[in-house]
Amino acid sequence: MRSYKGLLLLAFGLAMAAPAQAVCDVGPESAAANSASIASLAWAPFRRAETGWYVYAPRIAHEIGSSCAFGSRGFAAALARWQAARQLPSHGRVDVLTMSAMIGGWHAQRPYVRLRASGSCPAAPELSALAPATISEGYGGKLVLLRPAALASYRQMRAAAWRDVPVLASDKRWLSIFSAFRAPVDDAARCAIEQNCQGVVRANCSVHRTGLAIDLYVGQARGLPPESSADSNRIAMSRTPAYRWLVQNAARFGFVNYAFEPWHWEWTGEAPLPDSDPSPGEMVPDAE
Q: How many CB atoms lie within 10 A of CB 152?
């Protein structure tokens, strides 16, 4: 990838456009705690142990409406206001209680999660009801299928990203699709082979069956594939201009993110199809 270090630098300038420095210098002393916990917080937000919250920092900043540095007093002040509005301890620290509330809100934005919480598993559309993306839209020329309206919204979103961030248009991998519709029978076979449908990185009733979910190329750490859920990979993605643009803009096109995976986005412009037979095994509504 051309000048990846340069893209990372651009990401910081793009997504965290410098506000008036005076605003970012004012706030509670808990800013120091955030500076430390961003790399040290021990928690398991998706039932898998993690250290730190850097992966989620761009989404936290967007949620609280702050463009200040993550360890600044201004960021802590914005977080304290968000906490107070939700009757949480308003100390301005990123902690497990605050993140539980925030992640719960992010989950609630996903129609798939709401459906799964009711004990239902959405049906898959017929192949004839799906539309193919172009070769250039599929990562590495992969053939991918989506419901037509979801594909149309994806195309509008990608075109807007390329206009706003020209460096993304210079490498056609950015925001290309490496996974979209997956037939339930294929997912079941993969679950059986890989034994990893534990509800964190793969669900036993995947949202990909709806034809409304896409996995987008938003970068990768050296030596890892773009779909790796390794923490180092997710952190690398959270720093790219592609991901940070999505955090700020994807909702305008009807897309919401599964927070554990920077690459995974779901279109909300149409509802999943009515319930099919509930899938066997443990129902975990927070996986993709």
A: 15
For the chain, what's the residue count?
A: 288
pLDDT in tens, 225-238: 999 999 999 999 99
Of 2-6, 47-51, 202-206, highest mean pLDDT? 47-51
Token digits of residue 20: 């008036």
- DSSP for 195-247? ---SSSSS-SS-GGGGT-EEEE-----TTS-TT---HHHHHHHHTSHHHHHHH
Q: Give counts: helices (H), strands (E), the chain.
A: 12, 10
Confidence of residue 194 (pLDDT cuts 50, 70, 90): confident
* Residue whose entry in the numeric block shows the structure tokens 């807007």: 160
What domains, with CATH codes, occur in the chain? Answer: 4-108 (no CATH), 122-276 (3.30.1380.10)
User: Within a 13 Å sphere around the CA of 270, how many CA atoms are in the beta-carbon half?
Assistant: 17
Nearest-angstrom CA–CA distance, 151 and 146 = 6
Residues near 70 by Cβ (< 8 Å), separated by ≥ 6? 34, 35, 38, 54, 57, 60, 61
Cα gap 187→197, rounded to integer Å: 9
The pLDDT of residue 57: 98
Amino acid at residue number 121: C
46 Cβ partners below 8 Å, 6+ apart? 200, 259, 260, 286
Tokens of 280: 């066997």
Q: What are phi and psi of 273, to 5 degrees?
A: -65, 155
Token code pair at residue 204: 């036993």
Q: Is the pLDDT confidence value at 200 over 90?
A: no
Upper half-sphere CA count for residue 2 (Cβ side, 13 Å): 8
Q: How many CB atoms lie within 10 A of CB 188?
A: 16
